[in-house]
User: Which sequence fits this backbone?
């Protein structure tokens, strides 16, 4: 594999977000057409403690017997709640490199309408917790996830300020409203299996060896710094410096995103890209395992998106094509479905989600 370059992500101070400092220049550098699509927030009170409590539980659950884990699978929600392993596609085959536990970090039961739940199971099915087999997971998952949503609301406020300053017809505070009011936030606790063993074994020369290329389709994704564990479950380091998160820029460059280990991270998703008329850009990204052996990676992602009825429309007067400018075929990594094939300006978020999930998952 050719040598890959790296670039530091934009780092914001939590207190600056709280104080309302004008961070438009930083938002544009991170999320604009030339940005990496990701930024970091430093100094969030209590975050690292919550992260350190949650992430080891990903490994603990993943190492349970298969018959135990199967109790917490939920096919009727397209594996969007509970345990999921091997349901996504990687290079046309089931992705066995990682396992995921999905839940709503804010609401165990967002609605009580059974007909509505049956209609939109991937959005509003009640959470499924392994209270018998890993009882500590529920509280740790919700504690960390809820904090990420709180900080995400602040990041969204500053994104709205940036977009409104350049697009007068943009709905005032739209991204903040989505993050604040949505009942369908979804978090994903990830365990990346040892990439040198068994069915999770991958070609360590591939930049997407641990997690395939993809775009987040929600509005804003909050992330914990990944945790590397050895075979005894103790925290360690990945000895291969090439391992980590990679992004594909709008000019076709593949860059390693260098992220501080003490920060909360936020990525822009395709829904915010559409709603902003392309002023905010979702960036294709993947995770490289490297050639280290005997390690696993634990991570946590919180997908903040709108409720299912939210319109997937660009601001009034903005051409829909502008929302797709950064998502053209010539620069997309293999495996990422074109936005123009999954989205149109008249659909709602439920329809967009269905089109997107069917492009990535093998049902």
Assistant:
């Amino acid at each position: 594999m050719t040598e890959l370059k790296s670039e530091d992500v934009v780092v914001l101070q939590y207190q600056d977000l709280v104080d309302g400092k004008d961070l438009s220049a930083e938002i544009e550098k991170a999320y604009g057409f030339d940005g990496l699509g990701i930024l970091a927030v430093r100094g969030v009170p209590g975050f690292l403690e919550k992260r350190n409590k949650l992430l080891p539980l990903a490994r603990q659950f993943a190492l349970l017997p298969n018959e135990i884990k199967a109790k917490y699978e939920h096919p009727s929600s397209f594996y969007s709640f509970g345990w999921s392993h091997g349901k996504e596609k990687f290079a046309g085959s089931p992705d066995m490199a990682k396992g995921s536990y999905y839940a709503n970090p804010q609401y165990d039961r967002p609605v009580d309408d059974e007909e509505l739940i049956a209609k939109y199971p991937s959005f509003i099915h009640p959470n499924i917790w392994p209270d018998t087999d890993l009882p500590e997971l529920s509280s740790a998952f919700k504690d960390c996830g809820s904090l990420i949503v709180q900080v995400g609301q602040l990041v969204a406020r500053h994104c709205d300020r940036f977009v409104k300053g350049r697009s007068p017809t943009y709905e005032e505070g739209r991204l903040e409203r989505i993050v604040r009011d949505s009942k369908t936030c979804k978090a994903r606790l990830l365990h990346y299996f040892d990439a040198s063993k068994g069915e999770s074994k991958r070609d360590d020369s591939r930049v997407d060896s641990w997690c395939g290329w993809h775009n987040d389709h929600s509005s804003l994704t909050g992330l914990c710094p990944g945790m590397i564990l050895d075979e005894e479950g103790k925290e360690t380091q990945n000895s291969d410096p090439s391992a980590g998160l990679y992004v594909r820029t709008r000019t076709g460059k593949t860059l390693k995103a260098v992220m501080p280990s003490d920060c909360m991270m936020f990525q822009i998703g395709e829904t915010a890209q559409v709603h902003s008329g392309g002023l905010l850009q979702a960036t294709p990204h993947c995770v490289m395992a490297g050639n280290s052996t005997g390690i696993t990676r634990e991570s946590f992602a919180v997908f903040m998106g709108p409720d299912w009825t939210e319109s997937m429309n660009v601001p009034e007067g903005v051409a829909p094509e502008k929302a797709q400018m950064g998502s053209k075929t010539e620069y997309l990594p293999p495996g990422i479905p074109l936005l123009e094939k999954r989205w149109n300006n008249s659909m709602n978020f439920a329809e967009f989600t269905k089109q997107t999930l069917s492009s990535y998952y093998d049902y």
Observations:
- The longest helix spans residues 137-166.
- Residues 2 and 217 are 29 Å apart (CA to CA).
